[in-house]
Sequence to fold (550 residues):
Amino acid sequence: MAIEMKNVCYTYMDDSAFSHAALKDICLTVNENEFVALIGHTGSGKSTLISHMNGLMQPQSGKVTVDGLDMSDKLKRKEGRTRVGMVFQYPEYQLFEETVKKDIAFGPHNMGLSDEECDERVREAMELVGLSYEKFADKSPFDLSGGERRRAALAGIIAMRPKYLVLDEPMAGLDPMGRRRILDTVISLRSALHCAVVMVSHSMDDVARIAERVVVMHEGSIVMDGAVSEVFTHTEKLREIGLEIPTAARIADGLRMRGVDVPKGICTIEALSEYLTGRLKKC
Amino acid sequence: MLKDITLGKYYPGNSVVHALDPRTKILLTIFFMIAVFLVSDLWLFIPVTLGLFGIMLLTEIPIKLILSSLRPMKWILVFMFVINLLMIRTGKVLLEFWIIKITTDAIVRAVFVSVRLLLLVLGTSLMTLTTTPIRLTDGLEKLMSPLKVIKFPAHELAMMMTIALRFIPTLLDETDRIMKAQTARGADFETGSLIKRAKAMIPIMIPLFISAFKRADELAVAMDSRCYHGGDGRTRMKVMHFAKRDLIAAAVLIIFFGAVIVTGILL
Fold:
């Protein structure tokens, strides 16, 4: 069971002067329970790619299936969409209801669930994103702070209990505190819901810390796909396509240049400091 | 889905037509429209069309793209054609059954009206395709500035148009984004009764309005903080001036379409 994309191609404004290929022959499988980070420069096709994962966009050629459900089929798409929860950039702009509770229940209601079930899911989702039900449920979403609003929007997707959670830059535009809270929420969600996570991010440190697999996109193609420790060893190639590398990997690179043979594959501060303290103890 | 709108869109280029002063283009477009309205004979549309195609070639924009600006007009065209075809009852009768009577006059008139509409749309879209909206409103402001004497708010009007034009693509993008977000939450905009579908628009309209108001607020602050205080005494980074090519373009077009009009009157 997985999200499978086979030879997906997509061109914006086809056959006009403004046309540009956003996706070129993409093959990608997202397995159950996996944490995939999707990185790439602005305009590399990340957002277009994830829009294909739940059938919001249809490939011009190629095929997308979610747990075997063909997303080009109208009826199966609807079922597929409930399995792939999509959190777009700045999701707080999608809030529209009078109360937080009602807004979070929008998704479950559209799935045709009963009122009791919706309410139960709202409570659960709010709990998971760290908004207390008593305090926030009856507030207007427009009275919340930026970070709270984003978590409320996230809860709106979680309440649909997706098997795959797709997040497009969930931390963009938040202060460090807000970023950490969202990141922690994503980590705890995964263990609570046992769902796969696909996260688009520009913060390589965050990617190195929480992802298992990294997919690198460049000009509409997947150029690298592998475990975090493996992808971040190709520092030269990443720099070439204009991407940052995690701070720890950068420090490790610098140390290596100065003759300290830090092993490859270290890309989190924790792992690096562990290695270095171990080394110092030996001295 | 919302992005495939060609009508009124700028197409970047370096052609002679692009380089013309926006005021020249606006005035000549108006002149062209008058010419099209004054032409009263179907055959005279042939030189007008040829002239228009000549300008099209000069713009260096793919003809197919220019013609695609006609696509949104197709229903109006069909409507105009059919109405004229059915309503005019003079001339030789070609076909008659029930209440429908089609005459030679009606066919000529229907073709005439459709061609006129086509030419008007093509002519004006040539202007918008070769002029950035900013330059276009600048040109309009300049052209309307004599009206300031009678307290006509030329600058304010131009500024409002600039802002509106600037935010159309932004709001379309925004609508697209919100629609996608709500679709991902299982909202359904395509099926159901009219009332159900109208209700389904609420999750789009509310976020859209909220962000539009927010944007307006932010824009007002941004303008304020840069000391915007209306048009009085405001200078421009790019000052428009007529060049020799404007004169040549105006002369060529006025002579050409003028000749067509005169021929029409004399005939």
Summary: The two ends of chain A are 50 Å apart (CA to CA). Chain A has a mean pLDDT of 89.
